[in-house]
Amino acid sequence: MTDLVKLVFFFLFFFEINQIGFSQSNQTWLLADDIQISFKNGSPEVSKVNNNIPIRAENSSILCDENGSVQFYTVGEAIWDGNHKVIQNGDDLGGNKSTTQGTVVIQSETNPSLLHFFTLENAGTDDGSYLFHSILDISQNGGQGEMIQVRKPLWENLTEKMISMPDPCGGAWIVVHERDNNRFLSFHLQDDKMDVNPIISEIGSAHNLENIYSWSGQMVADPASNILAVLNLDGLFEFVSFNHVSGRLTYLCTIDDGQVGLSSFYSGAFSPDGQFFYQSEFGYNPNIERNTTIVTQYAVSKMDRDSILASKVVVGYLDNTTQPPTFKLGPDEKIYLVARPYSSLHRIEFPNRKGMDCHFQHEYLDVGSEFKSINLPQDLVLSVHRNWFSLPSDTLLCSFDTLNLNFSDIDASFVWSDGYTGAQRTISAPGQYIVAAEDSLGCTHSDTFNLEIYDTNLSQVDTMICPGDFLIINGDIISEAGSYHSQGAINDDCSEDRTINVAFFPQESDTIFATIQEGHPFYWGDSILTAPGIYDRTEVDQNGCLSLQYLALSAENDEKDLDFPFIPNAFTPNGDNINDIFAIQAPDYETIHLNIFDRWGNQVYAASGPNCQWNGLVDSNRAESGVYLYQFILKGPQGKTKQRTGTVNLIQ
User: Fold this and answer.
1) Of 209, 36, 193, 47, which is closest to residue 128 (Cα–Cα)?
2) What are 555-578's pLDDT values in tens digits?
């Protein structure tokens, strides 16, 4: 295979984050009162940072490197680096620290140094919560990062619910919910471009401003990102499905069975295998005359309201709580809970187990002081770069090579512009090739390229030239018809090796016969003729070649010239002594000059002197049969000279 073919050989794009990699599951959590929880060694470990961490918030997003060290974090109002300093121009992102889900961070799929920050205002404002979009380039400012877009508004009148969902076709979705209605909005981010026109899904209950409890809960996704649990503090939570390709949501069912007085559904978490959903019911318990929280488990493998309700199991209690707890699935695949006024993390140790076997651990890990907030950080979302195919660029291929395309690594169906539907093919014909693919999720992709074939071993009549012209092949001057071998190279990879057949267009000429009256001019093109004779001129024929045109102009015979001699129109010079000579037959005229021309205008015979004649020989050879032009110059009575032209048919 030539280097050229190797260069255009089909290849796949596989995306990798190099050098600037972040952990999608945060290995380190920052909480209020300078509390840091690290999962670097597997189990969570508590330490104090003593840097006055500015997290006194209901929401946060923390970005850790692959070693678990904090690189950037935000509570929606500003962005801090790993040294707890506000990055350049990152002090006002438009968010609010008391927004339930006020921050989402998405890393670019094509440029890992770009981080997209989405922030929400507090929904209790008169004009509702705004969604803002900011972009941080962490490669700027000596690696400390610099904002290249700050607080660009995308939408208004939103609740405090926000979550990011991956798009397997490429990119990511940001899902929010409008206030005072039942509309979900899905914004699409791909190739660092934000589509400001969201996909709208009108489903489920309305989240009204008058009821703060309807718009301040969380949205939680299952591990496969197919199902969202939408929790409301007003005593219900809903399950909706999410279409990764279209961005649309579909209503599944509503769960509203909270115990009397304990109906505030604020947060929750799915088990790692997606079979169970955990949430809490918070409120005042009249039996013990204080606030309390119960932790419940639901089986959600079947999204049916009755079966979900029937599977409900209480797995734990948190007594004397002042706020509903926040749930988060940790990097160790255990579910953690934060609740005020506790000074410890609670944990569900085996969340994939049914009922009490999940093992709820009350006050599992002491952090040293009471929690000032119920914040647990959101995870980084990596925008998806789809492993689609790419056809070669428009290219030139040697005729003795082929181009092999192989898409078999992609689980998709393929349709080519010529109707072919295979995932592999070998191409050797020139033309434009278009292939479209669609996978089982409905993701589509297409690509196009043009292939030109350089025919390097061709033998055909491919050159015709005009009579008298020539070609130069391999430095040789070619002036005769025939087959010639040509060698050369079109580039370093394709060698030219062909036979060129050279042919000549036929020599074209024409003869026009006319008469001229003595004393009158004869017009032929741009020429003005005044005497009999044979004339020629050059013309361009239909092949673009030069050809000769002849005019045989003879004197007009009139009634006053009746004594003019007889000139035969045919003779047979075959040696039988019958009509072997072409000559004037009149005793009163003396021939002093005779010219004979073939039909191409070439002079084949000439004679001067008394009684000139032609015996049909050309250079001592018998002339071919055909029509010939003649020109006689005669001396008549009284010595007067006349000229006559015409044609004679020579018959062998």
Assistant:
1) 209
2) 765 434 445 567 777 788 888 787
Separation CA 69–CA 82 (nearest Å)? 8
Find out whether 573 and 652 touch, Cβ atoms under 8 Å: yes
Contact between residue 59 and residue 122 where contact means Cβ atoms under 8 Å apart: no
- Identify the DSSP state of 169: T
pTM of the entire predicted model: 0.64
Q: Decide if 91 contacts 78 (C-beta within 8 A).
A: yes
Terminal C-alpha separation, the chain:
66
61 Cβ neighbours under 8 A, 6+ residues apart: 73, 74, 103, 104, 105, 117, 377, 378, 380
243 Cβ contact partners less than 8 Å away, ≥ 6 residues apart? 249, 250
Does residue 18 have a pLDDT over 50? no
- For residue 559, report the phi and psi dihedrals to the nearest 5 degrees: -65, -25
Q: Which pLDDT score, from 0 to 100, does residue 586 have?
A: 65
Burial class (CB in 10 A: 0-12, 13-18, 19+), 320: middle
Residue 305's φ and ψ, nearest 5 degrees, are -55, -45
- Supply 521's token pair: 């001019």
Neighbouring C-beta atoms of residue 528, cutoff 10 Å: 9
Going from the C-alpha of 394 to that of each of 29, 132, 495, the distances in angstroms are 51, 42, 20
- Rounded to 5 degrees, what are φ and ψ at 441? -85, -10
Contact 201, 248 (CB under 8 A): yes
Nearest CA to 317 among 288, 342, 296?
296
- How far is residue 377's CA from residue 70's CA, in Å, rounded to a whole number? 12
User: Residue 132 pLDDT > 90, yes or no?
Assistant: yes
Task: Give the C-alpha separation, 196 to 190, whole Å.
Answer: 12
Strands (E), 344-470: 344-348, 360-366, 381-382, 389-390, 395-398, 403-406, 412-416, 424-427, 431-439, 444-454, 459-465
- Residues whose CB falls within 8 Å of the CB of residue 565, separated by 6 or more in sequence, listed in order: 584, 585, 586, 588, 589, 634
Rounded CA-CA distance 648/604 in Å is 14
Is the peptide bond prior to 341 cis by the omega test (within 30 degrees of 0)? yes
Segment 505-516, tens digit of pLDDT? 776 666 666 666
Instruction: Report d(CA 358, CA 355) in Å as an integer.
Output: 6
Beta-strand runs (E) in 58-192: 61-65, 70-74, 79-81, 103-107, 114-120, 129-137, 146-166, 172-178, 181-190
Short-list 378, 142, 386, 381, CA closest to 269: 378
Q: Is 589 helix (H, G, I), strand (E, B) or coil?
A: coil
DSSP states along 532-561:
-EEEEEEEE-TTS-EEEEEEEEEEPP-GGG
Spatial distance between the Cα atoms of 617 and 626, rounded to a whole number of angstroms = 13
Give the integer Cα–Cα distance in Å for 437 and 416: 9
Residues 98, 245: Cα–Cα separation, whole Å: 32
- Check: CB of residue 145 under 8 Å from CB of residue 135: no
Measured distance CA(367)–CA(36) in Å, rounded: 9
Q: Which residue, 376, 380, 366, 346, is CA-closest to 31?
A: 376
In DSSP notation, 490-520 reads: SSSS-EEEEEEEEEEPPP-EEEEEEEE-TTS
CA-based nearest residue to 100, from 80, 81, 120: 120
Amino acid at 258: G
Structure tokens at 427: 């191409």
User: How many other CB atoms are there within 10 angstroms of residue 359's CB atom?
Assistant: 14
